[in-house]
């Protein structure tokens, strides 16, 4: 709060503290939603600028990181919206929206994202995945993420990469704790489901 | 499984660090925003001061004119009436102008 007061008093250089501390988190969040590094960079710039403009409205009720994360999500979703893929988070689970891929590269139908791998097959996919070299592993994961919807990528990014708690994710999004838990569970299974359909990772 | 997924996501490049110049670009944009704010405040303050000085001059002139006994209230009333008629005849222009100023005030100056 001391830094915030100093920024509000006109010492704009103090804002560099927040930029340095939270740019990695904001960039990971934006990349999780947008996929492209260039778009994410723009979204993060917009988010920090919005945070600077609205700093006087930050009352410290939530953590600064959570507040900034919320702004970053909104900026990134606005960019998704401007691409014509919808522009907001759904309050509950179900349905599909916002995947970047066409879904056609493996001869899969429109509803392929609904594939959620049964628990007993997770280990099979995992062992096939481990047999690939690093490059192929990275490519497979990137392709799988490209074919997941925005909400799934976002929840995985916030939870696994930013290491935010369920409470923090709930404060930064429109989702309740139960929805987040369900989304995490489904996102993991969907990711494995998509991986299981890749030719390199077919286990049967 | 939790750690596996974290490693998978990291391997995909999703958790890659931001470009090294990102913080510099952000700070440049923030400083530019701050400069705009200051400029806006300076301009508004200057306009208010100029209007204040003009209003003071007009009031002083009217008072001096009145004290000198050269102020014809009938003529002042007549001129006010002419101005009132002009406003009545151009009501849409006046209302539009006021609305434009109000909108500009809310959306632009409000950020200053």
Q: What does this molecule look like?
A:
The complex is a heterodimer of chains A (204) and B (112). Chain A has helices at residues 2-8, 15-34, 37-53, 64-82, 119-131, 134-146, 150-161, 166-172, 177-196. Chain A is an all-alpha fold and 204 residues long. Chain A has 2 domains: 2-82, RNA polymerase sigma factor, region 2, helix turn helix motif (Rna Polymerase Sigma Factor, Chain: A, Orthogonal Bundle); 110-201, Winged helix-like DNA-binding domain superfamily/Winged helix DNA-binding domain (Arc Repressor Mutant, subunit A, Orthogonal Bundle). In chain A, helix 3 (37-53) crosses helix 4 and helix 5 packs across helix 9. The termini of chain A are far apart. Residues 93-113 of chain A have low confidence and may be disordered. With 112 residues, chain B is an all-alpha fold. Chain B has 2 domains: 18-71; 72-112, no CATH class. Chain B has 4 helices and no strands. The longest helix of chain B is centred in the middle third of the chain and has 46 residues, at 22-67. The radius of gyration of chain B is 29 Å and the shape is elongated. The two termini of chain B are 51 Å apart. The mean pLDDT of chain B is 88. Chain A binds chain B through residues 10, 12-13, 15-16, 19-20, 23-24, 26-28, 31-32, 37, 41, 44-45, 48-49, 52-53, 122, 126, 129, 134, 137-138, 141-142, 145, 156-157, 160-161, 188, 191, and chain B through 1-2, 4-6, 8-19, 22-23, 25-27, 29-31, 33-34, 111.
Proportion of beta-strand residues of chain B: under 5%
Question: What's the total number of strands of chain B?
Answer: 0
Indicate the low-confidence ranges of chain A by residue numbers: 93-113
Q: What's the order of the H and E elements of chain B?
A: HHHH
How many discrete domains of chain A? 2
Q: Provide the CATH topology of the largest domain in chain A.
A: Arc Repressor Mutant, subunit A
Query: What would the principal axes of the Cα set say about the shape of chain B?
Result: elongated
End-to-end Cα distance of chain B, whole Å, is 51 Å
Number of domains of chain B: 2
Assign the CATH architecture of the largest domain in chain A. Answer: Orthogonal Bundle
Q: Provide the structure class of chain A.
A: mainly alpha
Q: Percent of residues of chain A in beta strands?
A: under 5%
Distance between the termini of chain A: 57 Å
Number of helices of chain A: 9
Largest sheet of chain B: none
Instruction: Look at the structure and give the mean pLDDT of chain A.
Output: 79
Total of DSSP H or I helical runs spanning 4+ residues of chain B: 4
Query: What gyration radius of chain A follows from the Cα positions, in whole Å?
Result: 19 Å
Average pLDDT for all residues of chain B = 88
How are helices and strands ordered from N to C of chain A? HHHHHHHHH
Low-pLDDT segments of chain B: none
């Amino acid at each position: 709060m001391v830094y915030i007061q100093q920024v509000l008093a006109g010492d704009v250089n103090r804002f560099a503290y927040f930029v340095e501390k939270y740019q990695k988190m904001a960039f990971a969040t934006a990349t999780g939603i947008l996929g492209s590094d260039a778009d994410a960079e723009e979204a993060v710039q917009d988010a920090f600028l919005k945070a600077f403009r609205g700093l006087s409205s930050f009352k410290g009720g939530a953590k600064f990181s959570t507040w900034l994360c919320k702004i970053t999500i909104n900026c990134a979703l606005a960019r998704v919206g401007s691409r014509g893929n919808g522009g907001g988070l759904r309050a509950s689970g179900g349905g599909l929206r916002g995947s970047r891929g066409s879904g056609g590269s493996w001869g899969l139908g429109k509803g392929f994202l609904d594939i959620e791998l049964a628990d007993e097959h997770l280990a099979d996919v995992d062992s096939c995945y481990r047999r690939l070299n690093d490059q192929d592993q990275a490519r497979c994961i990137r392709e799988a993420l490209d074919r997941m919807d925005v909400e799934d990528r976002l929840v995985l990014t916030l939870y696994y990469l930013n290491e935010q708690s369920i409470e923090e994710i709930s404060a930064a999004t429109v989702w309740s704790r139960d929805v987040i838990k369900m989304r995490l569970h489904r996102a993991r299974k969907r990711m494995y489901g998509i991986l299981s359909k890749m030719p390199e990772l077919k286990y049967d | 499984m939790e750690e596996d997924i974290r490693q998978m996501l990291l391997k995909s490049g999703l958790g890659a660090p931001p470009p090294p110049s990102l913080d510099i670009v952000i700070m440049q944009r923030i400083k530019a925003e701050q400069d705009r704010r200051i400029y806006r405040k300076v301009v508004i303050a200057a306009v208010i001061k100029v209007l204040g000085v003009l209003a003071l001059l007009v009031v002083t002139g009217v008072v001096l004119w009145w004290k000198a006994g050269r102020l014809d209230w009938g003529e002042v009333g007549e001129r006010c009436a002419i101005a009132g008629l002009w406003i009545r005849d151009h009501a849409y222009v006046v209302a539009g102008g006021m609305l434009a100023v109000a909108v500009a005030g809310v959306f632009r100056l409000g950020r200053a």
